[in-house]
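Input (ABC transporter related):
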Amino acid sequence: MAEQGSDPIIRVRDVSVQFGATKVLDNLDLDVRRGEILGFVGPSGAGKSVLTRTIIGLVPKLSGRIEVFGIDLDAAGKAERRGIERRWGVLFQQGALFSSLTVRQNIQFPVREYLKLSQRLLDEIAIAKLVMVGLKPEVADRYPSELSGGMIKRVALARALALDPELVFLDEPTSGLDPIGAGEFDELVRTLQRTLGLTVFMVTHDLDSLHTACDRIAVLGDGKVIAAGSMAEMQASQHPWLRSYFHGKRARAVVG
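Output:
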């Protein structure tokens, strides 16, 4: 388990997000501690991915305050905001690779966005990140359509790590993977987190991931975080949804 700082690297306070007449997040509070892997769970459609996209600025919030690295994102100027964005990486659902770009070009994309480097250095970065996530260098010249689901997730993770971030957002990283592939991906994330000292905010519904990869779990329900703590605390909770989720048939199979 990572050595975690008491200071939150992400601090969300009273955040509300609304689409039309539907309020998806309702005065939500959440802390993500430095150095931890936080698993963010909740019912389908509850707004887990919405919170991720709100933090990184892809979805506007109705109200509230979001601080990352101790900086209020609303108060940050353009240059300061770009500096913050360089310090995080994002793995979107299904990988979200650019289909018209090779693996090499996908990994290099965020580097080109923020840095002016020679092609030789860009190529070295791409190969290094591929090897880091357990893929062979020759994968670099393939297109996403030539990759398996597990390889797509690893390439997407390599792209998320391209700028050597301190903070990584993973949105359903094991969704669509077979149990062996999902387990290997969880172990990869855990290893990289320990090796690189990452903080990881992971949206997931995978009970295996919660057991094997996460230091803490936060649960979203009715637009708010209804519980946050260790797996033992989640299993001890008497909240109806938590009991159903952490003590159902699939949960018993994981624990067993």
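The domain at 1-87+197-255 is CATH 3.40.50.300 (Rossmann fold).
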